[in-house]
Amino acid sequence: MSSASFSDALDAENCVGQYDTARYYVYGSIANMIMYIFICRASSIID
């Protein structure tokens, strides 16, 4: 019983980890684009 629930927890954690990784890449790339635009605009304003 405990080993089954433990393996189930591992499987659930694995699934959530893959989802978080995909979400991180999607939101991370969008955030990086926004930060890149802000940094480029800020550096052009400073220059």
Question: Can you describe this structure in just a few lines?
Answer:
Keywords: Membrane, Transmembrane, Transmembrane helix. The protein is mainly alpha-helical and 47 residues long.
SSE map:
Layout: H1 2-46
What do these coordinates show?
- With 47 residues, this protein is mainly alpha-helical.
- The protein is 96% helix and 0% strand.
- It contains 1 helix and no strands.
- The mean pLDDT is 70.
- The protein has one domain (1-47).
- The termini are far apart.
- It has one helix at 2-46.
Key structural traits:
mainly alpha
User: How many distinct folded domains?
Assistant: 1
Our measurement of the CA-to-CA distance between the termini, rounded to an integer number of angstroms, reads 65 Å
Helix percent reads: over 70%
Helices, by number, come to: 1
Give the strand content. Answer: under 5%
- What is the oligomer described by this structure? single chain
Q: What is the string of helix and strand elements?
A: H
Q: Radius of gyration, Cα only, in angstroms?
A: 20 Å
Spans of 5+ residues with little confidence (pLDDT < 50)?
Answer: none
Q: Major β-sheet, in short?
A: none
Count of β-strands: 0
Structural class: mainly alpha
CA-based shape: rod-shaped
Mean pLDDT: 70
